[in-house]
Amino acid sequence: MVVGVTLALIAAVGYGLSSVMQALGARQAARENSADHRMSTATGAPSLRSTAATAMTGVFIVGAIFDVLGFIAGAGAARMLPLFLSQTIVAGNLVITAVLGIRLLGIRLHTRDWVAIGTVLAALLILGAASRPHTAGATPRSLHWALLIATVVLVGLSIYGVRRMGPAGSVAAGAAAGLLFGAVAIGVRVLDGIDPFSLPVMLADPAAWVIAIAGASGFYLHTVALQLGAVNGSTAALVVGETAAPGIVGVMWLGDSTVPGLEWMALAGFTFAVLGAVAVALFGSAEAERSADENLAPAPELDDSFTVPADCSSLEHQPESRTGPAWWVDSLSERLHWR
């Protein structure tokens, strides 16, 4: 169980770093293509061209690498722990996103945000204390097919709905991405052909296609959510989706359970963890408009007429402060701007 918890923590760090890096990529791409009308649809939602431009920025690619790290670690945790525990620990990526967002994205957190984040962390500790290791068991093939059908329907409805909602669809896109990532976790948990390993058996399992479809679609919708703004809000909505649904499925159909006599503690921990994430989502919704405006704001032009004085040590030419959030964004984006 210790190994599973460690993997879940690694996944949380990877996903948290990924969210911030991908948000930086979305801002960079929006600034560079602010004059291109093809970057958005008639409703104001990002076009496929816009999403592709975002995905090609260097800083976004680095975020994608952290995404892969998070997925691998999360997959291992999902096989070793009850889903209500593994997915809730992974929800800790919200803390990483929020803290790094202060420095790199210029996001301002208030007391209520910190209280909500603290609630999530405390609830995780309670939930972990009440959980017991997962014991593997066979699952009916009908459950695999039902998961695949539900995934395809969710993908279609989510993409259609987000494109119709336009700029207001940031949190909705994050929630849809979360549900799809939750489907990935369930698919990893029930996937056949792992032990003993058999590639033909694995590829013949509908759960394998759930992992591929839900993973790719969730990644796309998460990218759209970050393009639309509300980094903390959309990430929190994602956390709720990828935590609540797999937790419920695990308890009802996959045999996940708690330490005997501590069911109430597990329920309390899970409930407060989800409610804490919802609170951060609601508080972060007010930040959506400001983040979206920053995405579309053109980068400031440099004054090329400045001449370095002969005496660089002169007190009349003190160096400009380089500690503000904007510098971190521009500097990191420039270093990772691969063309």
From TrEMBL:
The chain crosses the membrane at residues 55-76, 83-102, 114-131, 143-162, 168-191, 203-221, 264-283. Keywords: Membrane, Transmembrane, Transmembrane helix. This is Magnesium transporter NIPA.
